[in-house]
Structures are given as structure tokens and as C-alpha cells.
Batch of 2 targets.
Target 1
Amino acid sequence: MNWVWFHKLASPPSAYVFALRLRPWLFWISVIMMLWAAYEGLFVVPPDYQQKDAFRIAYVHIPAASLSLMVYSMMAIAAAIGVIWRMKLAHAVAAACALPGAILTALALITGSIWGRPMWGAWWAWDARLTSELILFFLYLGYMTLRASFDDIGRADRASAILAIVGVVNVPIVRYSVVWWNSLHQGQTLSVFGESKMDSSMITPLLVMMLAFLMFFGAALCDGLRAEILRRERNASWLTDLKAK
Amino acid sequence: MNYETLKMGGYGAYVWSSYALTLLALFIMAFAARRASGKELSAAVRRVQINSTNNASSNATNGGTSS
């Protein structure tokens, strides 16, 4: 297999230009998809037979919650690649994942709390799913704080990578908490291999919204990655060429 | 769109506040990343300009001494 494209993309100048070109596509396509999915979720799909209209919160809560786990996994994988193969760009990707991941986790917690109030009669419960998601939020905050506490980027990369790798143990706990423990939180709604518990008319806007969130995160990641690359390549000669372009 | 649609069967406050917070979170996510890259880019451009000015002046100095 020819890996030249991968090595080329892993070089900071190529990754910078790639992120610069990809970002507007991801951003605008995700905005259009989000508008469509939000319209469908709010006005077109029928109310749930048990939760009535409150279930419409699912169209923002589920994408945020699932992406919060996906982003952390991505951050940990990138950090591991950075530590094992000493690839600087991998550390930059991990660092760029942290803030969007923390925002998505906070959003999942807040929208979950708002959804929980009419359904459970409480804003918060020390339930396995909610608590493990809160721990995930603290892991993101810890990662960012640890990075910020070092002046040297190399040391910040290594220390924060260890935290990201250790913290990944929380991802399956969040994911399977509703299966492993008796939980107030509802069970798995969507299933890749099994049968989903939602009607097909409700699933399509949800899947579109999830894809839109993923692309929106991709756009934010492109910007974050560019910032990280510029921070690391302060005195690189390719910046002169970039300015000339 | 009528009032009943906005009320969402009594769950309107919960549904609309969730969507409004999502909009805010997405805006913050996009804005923070954009601002960070913009800030780093302007700092990089400044550094490149300073370096090229320094190089030009040192070349002129070297040229002056050699002649």
C-alpha cells in the first residue's frame, strides 16, 4: 500500500493547507444539514407516545453526547500516536480536540439535565451515566489545564497525552453504564447492528443531525489544528511561503 | 407557526432552551477555534515580517562593509 499521501499529510505545512481548504466545506454543509434536521426534529416528526414533545430535545442531546465520547477517543488515539511514533502533528490534533470536546460534553450534560427535569422530575441525579459523563467533562478540563500549566510545548504534549490515554478508560464506562448498572437514564436508543427503538421517521433527522455535528466539529478542529500548527512552527521557513501565497 | 406549536404541549420552555443553548455552544465552539487560529496567524505574519526586515537590514550592513 502506498503511504506517501499519509506522510505528506502528516507534515505540518500540508496539514495546515489541507485544514484551511477543508474547513469552509465542512462548516457550510454542516450548517445546512443542521437547519434541515432541526426543522424536521422540531416541527415535522410526530411527538413520542410517552415523552410527547419533550423527546425533541433528543435531536440536540444525542449528537452532543455521542460526539463527546467520539472526540475523547480521537483525542486519546492522537495522543497515543504522538507518544509512540513521536508525531508532532498527532499531539496538535489531540490538543485541538480538547476545547470542542469539552463544549460538547457540557452541552450533553446541560441538555440532558433540561430533558431530565420534565421526565424524571429532577435536574440531576447521581446516576452512573450522568456521573461518568461529568467525569468525562472533568477529564477534558484536566487535559486543557495540564497543557496550559507547561511553557514548553513538548513537555505539555507528553504530560497531557498520558492523561488523555489513562482517561480513555472512562469512555466505555459512559457508553455501557446503562447496560452495566440500573440507571435512571434510558437505555440505548440507536443501534448499529441491532434494531433501533425509534421509528424510522424519527431516526433520519437524528442521523442527519449527528452527521452535521460531526462535520461542524471537523470544521472547528480544522481551525484549532491550524492554530496549534502555527504555535508549534513559530520559526519555520514555510510560513514565509505561506505569507507569499 | 402558531402558539400551540411553540408551546410544544407544555414542554416548550425545555425544548426551546435546549435548542438555544445548542446554538450558543456551537457558536462558541466555532468562534473560539476561529479566534485562536486568527490570533496565531497574525502573530506568525508579524514574526515573518520582522524576520524579513532584520534579514534585509543585515544584508544591507554586510553589503556596506564588503564594499
Target 2
Amino acid sequence: MSAGVVETTRRRESARARAVATALLVAAIAMFALTLSYGDFQISLPDVVRSLLGQPTPPGVDYIMHDLRLPRASVSVLAGLAFGLAGAIFQQLLRNPLASPDVIGVSQGATTAAVVAVLVLGVEGGIVAAVALAGALVTALVIYALSWRKGVGGYRFILVGIGIGTVLTSITSYILTRSDVKVAAEAMIWLTGSVSGRTWPQIVPLAVAVLILAPMALTLGRVLTGMQLGDDLATAFGVRVQRSRFALLITAVGLAGMATSAAGPIAFVAFMSGPIAVRLVGGGRPVLIQAALVGALLVLVSDFIGSHLLGSRQFPVGVVTGVIGAPYLLWLLATANRSGRGG
Amino acid sequence: MPVDLKADRLSLGYGERTVVHELSMHVPTGKVTIIVGPNACGKSTFLRGLARLLPASSGEVLLDGKSIHATPSREVALRLGILPQGPIAPDGITVTDLVSRGRHVHQGWFRRWSSQDDDAVTQALTATGTLPLAARPVDELSGGQRQRVWIAMALAQRTGILLLDEPTTYLDISHQVEVLDLLTDLNEAEGTTVVIVLHELNLAFRYADHLVVMKDGAVVTAGNPNEVLSEQIIEDVFGMRCRLVDDPISNTPMIVPIGRHRTANGEVDRPE
């Protein structure tokens, strides 16, 4: 009987984590299908499936599916997965809910690089994605270098990151004010975070990145069970702390950078996904898969709200996630010190 | 499996500041070693250095004759465990999950959680008397229970040597004794080599097979508490006069401090 308690508790916690992942997956698939089917031009689910399988469909369906809705739904899912995963990795690695890439300047790095590329250098297409990714990586490396004191501590990393992020935001604003109004207005939509009007050349690089980086993150994420207890205990467990942390951070930066380049810095998705997943799973285990799925679901649902449920006007997805995320950030800041876990 | 741990002219520090100077020490295998010393004497730093949590600025730590920093961290983790001071548990984590983390090094790319791991966790919980708490969140436990759970986590790692940095901090006297009894049980039952940094001198003198007294980053004296302690050493190290009397329970030395007040024989804290 006594041997049972440990096994029972462990199995119960694993079962709940699996159930949450499954439920989130089902919900995300349902939202994906709804995004494809619902709109000014309704497409029945059987037609959605037929169109996806390349079978004959009523006139107009294929165009709306393949040129409008499928790119939109795909980029929502991919960016959501990438942001959710990147955010959870940062937060769990640095043991602080404020440590997500959109709070500490990594997403701003991608944004500023993309804005410079488009508005100053006049670059277009796939190169913008590459530049945005490079922007995210360079920003992360600068934050890493500036917060390095014989190892990187979580709190210093966050403060340096917030500082860098602010500098980058001012640079972005400066470039926008100097630019042609019309171009700047287009850039603004991307800056808010938007999944509409995406084309396959913008989406494919993100899809490839997610296919490579997500499994990498999940594999590397094995060390999080140790790292969650702090550097000393992680070392005691045989984890090579600095090396593992660097590899995980670079992977997460890659995910956040690619997602930003494809869909803009969709506000707070990286920031909210991890804590929501933790709340759903309960306990203290690292939740990467669940956070990724929460991210996908958040973007799909927010985009659906922004485009169908707010009256006749359509809002970019980033407006909706911003409205959800901002109060959460305030709540977190207000309660962080009370529980003594500021960092 | 007995593990041999040795510091060889080990110097440790933070930045420019050297805290431990060329300290050499052989940790007696299969015994309970307790390190004491005044605040900032370098005892915690030394323990962290022994456990490769701090790089040596010169000298080295030898684990089974091999430099600990040259040994793969995983291999070290199979032989040497450390419980640092004041660890912080993730919010909401259950006792079972936390103690299971001690099995980290026994997991691998190709080795999944097994019944052997369940057994190790169960035994660690049993040894620390925390099995009834197995399903509870760590946040809800009392300080004493929590400390026992952390020790259980360290036990679950199943290492031949276990280092603990002030495992009794913030505990009341009954829980301090409980923790030290528990570590003695472990030492006697499994032959585990135990090294403890401890603040409470009288308990240190009682529970140490081998006592190490440190001051200013160096060892002042080391050995059996009955043989190496004197009132003069305590005064030199802690800057306080005292009487050493016989602990009526354990027949080990016991400190009775002498301050400036409340002395019955007119004996006060100044040279006789």
C-alpha cells in the first residue's frame, strides 16, 4: 500500500497533464476548423475537408480556402505554437512569469529589425523574415552578454531585457515617424500583430522553423525539471546549467523571432500561454506542450473575436490579445511581490 | 558505494575576493562530518566548492581520486548529492513530484521512469517520515515538514556522499534534532558519508563523528569533538569566552557562553 502513494500521485499528475494536452489539442483543431468554415462566405465542414483533400467543391470555395482562410488559420496556429512554447521556455528557465520574450525585448528586437529592413532599407519578402530572426537573436545575445556575471541570473536578465526592449521600441517609433504615412500605416498593422493577408512564402519559413525547433525545445526541455529548482540543484542533478540554458534560450528566441517575422509581435501570447497552461495542469511540473497549444488556441480564438465578434469593423489579432493580456500583466505586477516571488 | 572526497589546497572566492584559502581536507568516508565556524568564515563556500557548485580559483577537489571539475557532471551526480541552503520549490509542486526530481540523474534519453524510481522515492519519503504527505502541495507544509521533504529529495538521488548546507535553519529545536537524527539514521543504515554545515554548536558537537572548525577561510582544528575542542579554541574562533561542560546526554562538549551580564560567580567576558 505504501509503495502505492508515490505511484498513484505521479500517475494522477501525468494523467491530468495528458488530459489537458488532449483537450487543448481538440479545442485548437475545432477552432482551426471554425476559422476555415466561418465568415461572410460560409463553407460547410464537409466542403472544408473536401477542399483540403483537393476534391471538387462548389465554385469559390477553393479560392477562399486556399488563398484566404487556410493561410490565416495556419499562421495563427504556427505563430501561436511558437510564441506559447518560447514564452514558457523563457519563464520556466528564468523562473519568473515576467521573463517572456515579448516582455524582455526579444520580440522588440525582431520588430525593430523588420521595421528597419522594410522602411529604411526597402527590403521585401523572405529577407524580412531572416532580418527579423537575426534581430531577435542579436537582441537576445546582447541581453545575455550584458547580464552575464559569471553566469546569467534570472532577475538581472529580465531587467536588462526590459531596458533593451524600451530602447528598441523608441527606435521603432522614431523610424515610423520619419516614414511616409501610408507605408507607416501598413507597418503599424504588422506591428500590432496580424494574421490576415499572409501569403505562403511568409508562412513556409515559420512552418519549417516550428517543425525543427519545437521538437528540439521539447527534447532540451528535459532539463527544466532540474532547472526549475535553481542553478545549484540543477548542477547537483548533473545538468550542465549554462550550456543547457543557452541552448534552450537560443531555441526559444528562434521560435519567437520566426513567429514575429510572420505575424508581427502578437501582444502577450508568449507572456500568457505558459501561466495559463500551468494553471490548467496544476502542480509544479514544466508544461511546454500545453503552453504551445494554449498559444495556438489563444491566437485562433483572438483572431476569431477580432474579425467576427466586434461589430462591423475587423481588428488585428494583436489588439484582442493586447486587451486580454494587459490586465493580466498588471495583476501579475501587483501580486508578484506579495508572494515574495519577484525573482 | 563508498565515495572518497578530498580537497587539495582548494581556494575559492567570488570575483577578486578569496573566501577559502588553500584548504586541504579529507572527508572521512562513512562518517558524519560537521563544519562549524562564525558567520562569513567560508564554511558554506567551502561546501559549495566541494560539490563543484563553485569553480576552484586554485587547487582542486578530488572525487575518488579524480578532479571533480574534470569528471562529467552526471557522473558526479551519481556519487555526490548536495542540498544547498534555502532552496525554493516551484509553486504548486507536490511532495511526490519534488522528491522525484532527485531521480533526475537516473533518467536519460533512453531510460524512462521505472518502478525502481518509484521505490527510491518511496523509501526516501519513508526515511524522512513524509510518506503521509506524498500527495500534498509543498506550499502547504510547515517549515519542518518542508525541510524533511527537501532532504528526502536529496536522499532519492541515492548518492554515497551527501552534503547539506545548514539543513536546520529556521527550524525550531525539536525539528533540528529530528533532522540530525534523520541524517544519522541514514549514515548508520546506508553508510552514507554525510557532511553538514551547521550553526548550532552544541548539536554539532553532539552529532559530529568528525568536527571541522573554520575561521577566515581556513581550518582551525578538525577531529573528534571530544579531543579537539577547548575553551581557548572557541574563544579564538568565535570571539567569545565560554565554559565547555559535559553534555549530560551525549557526553560530548557543550558550550556555556559567558557574556557581560547574568553571571552568578562574578565571571564576565574579559580576560581573567
